[in-house]
Amino acid sequence: MNITIPDSIFHATKMTEEEFRLEIAIMLYKQEKISSGKVRAWTGLTVLEFQHELAKRGLCLNYDVEDFQADMKTLESLGFL
């Protein structure tokens, strides 16, 4: 699927295409519509670059209790706990 954004809207933002894509991706991530992996795949950011972009906007990783519990189980299964 492709979405067409009128040139007048795009030019009004005074952003590059990459900046525009990143802003849309971060907005969707913030609303928990897409994962960090999808953001990084779409924008080409590394994990650290993505975390830096979140920090610049005062945002945190979407990481809840369920994520923590899953990580703990993984660490236990690998013998780290």
Structure description:
The chain has 81 residues and is an all-alpha fold. It has one domain (14-77). Helices cover 64% and strands 0% of the residues. The protein is built from five helices and no strands. α2 (17-30) packs antiparallel against α3. The termini are far apart. The mean pLDDT is 92.
Which labels suit this protein?
mainly alpha; elongated
Describe the structure in brief.
This protein has helices spanning about 5-15, 15-30, 35-45, 45-55, 65-75. It has about 80 residues and is mainly α.
- The percentage helix is 55-70%
Which blocks of ≥5 consecutive residues have pLDDT under 50? none
Mean pLDDT: 92
Distance between the termini: 45 Å
How big is the Rg? 16 Å
Tell me the overall shape.
elongated
Characterize the largest beta sheet: strand count, sense, and whether it forms a barrel.
Answer: none
What is the secondary structure topology, with strand pairs?
Blueprint: H1 7-13, H2 17-30, H3 36-43, H4 47-56, H5 65-77
Helix pairs in contact: 2-3
